[in-house]
Structures are given as structure tokens and as C-alpha cells.
Amino acid sequence: MNQWIAKVCFVTMLATACASAQDVEKLVEVKHVQPNGALRNLFDVLGVRMSDPVAGYIALKGPKDSVAAAEEALHHMDVEKPTQDVEITGWLVIESAHESDPVPEELAPVARQLRAVFGYSNLRLLTSFALRTKSGGSGTAGGIVGPGFYNFSTSRVDVSGEVAGAHKLHLMAVHFDCSKSNLMTDVDLTEGQKVVIGKTSMSYGSAPAPLILVLSARVVSE
Torsions phi, psi of 99, nearest 5? Predict the structure, then answer.
């Protein structure tokens, strides 16, 4: 049995070596396309391995016909896409009995969710903010709230397509800090969806109070 297993392993290794010997390598110049997960999955089906871009080139390796097909696909996809204007809206909601603005009706579903999960019963709106940027761009916003300052930023905003007529957006490296507390994360959301990004705390009144960041984003022009 051990001899049979060894023979099978040898034949498999030999077949793999022969297949590898028939592989070709090709450098393809690219300007706009990025080797994301979906593209890598597509090339995996073809049996083509793809490198990250280096100095404007991507290396392809695999069977000759498959590499040729992958190269043709890259040329078709390597076009500059028009930028889209994106508007990001944020709300800072606090759990406090102190006088403040009530939670607006547009945040009612979020307020119900927070009450159900955390038992919050005195949710108040501290402030809201909005910023405009472009797909592929970054954005920042900030201001005074309570006894201190808040700052919001995202290093990159990508529009990744549509689902049922609504754009999908990816906010990379979202960073929010307020009163020495901070949050940092990537955010995926659907256009118009209001998402609770995270919970921190701030001094409000005589004691620290839970502070919740809610975000929404939409494409405002094509």
C-alpha cells in the first residue's frame, strides 16, 4: 500500500512539473485596473496567477491560451472610469437625559434598534455632519460638540456597483475621534442605508455617556 501511495504521489508531482513547464509568463501594462478579489477569482478559473501591480505592470503566469485570454480581459477592463460625487452623512447620537435635540424621524429605525440591543431609552441627537467627495477620493469633517471637538475622516470612498438599483459603497479606514475616544474601521453599506458604525463615550453632564456614530452615504451624480 505504501509503495502504491508513493507511486501515485510521484505521478502527481511529475504531472504538475510538466504542467508548470508548459506555463508562460507575461508582463501586462495597466493604468487603472486593480487586481481585486473578484478579478483574481476570475483568473483562478482560467488557471492564471496574477501579481500585484509594480511600476504599472502586472505579471501573469499560466497556460499560454489562458494567459492570452487574461491579458485580453485586462486590456478591456483597463479604462479610466468616470468619477462619481458621493455624499456622506453622519449623526452623533448620545444616551443622556440631559436636554438636547430629539432623534429625528429619519433615525427612528436606528433608535429602535439601539433600544432593543442596548436598552437605551433617552437617545438624543448631539449633531450631524455631511461631506462631499468623489469616488476614489477621501474626505474629512469635524466640529465642536459638547465640551470638545470631534473629527471624522475616511481615506478612500469606492462605489462598487449596484444592487436592486442602489449603489454599494465602501469607506476605507473610517476614523472618528471625540473627547479622546476613537473608532477606526472599514465600512460597507448600501446607498441610503443608515449604519451604526460603533459606540464610544464622551463626557456629557456629570458623567460619561454612550456616544453612537451613525453613517449613511449616497451617490449624488453619475
Answer: -65, 130
Q: Does domain 2-77 have CATH number 1.20.1250.20?
A: no
pLDDT digits (tens, 9 = 90+) for 202-215: 766 666 778 889 99
Residue whose C-alpha is closest to residue 31's, from 83, 74, 68, 84: 74
Single-letter residue type at 100:
S
pLDDT digits (tens, 9 = 90+) for 91-145: 999 887 666 677 889 999 998 988 888 888 888 888 999 999 998 899 999 998 8
Q: What is the pTM of this model?
A: 0.63
C-alpha span between 177 and 175 (Å, rounded): 7
Closest CA to 222 of 115, 97, 81: 81
What are the φ/ψ torsions at residue 157 (nearest 5 degrees)?
A: -120, 125
Residue 34 has pLDDT above 90, yes or no: no
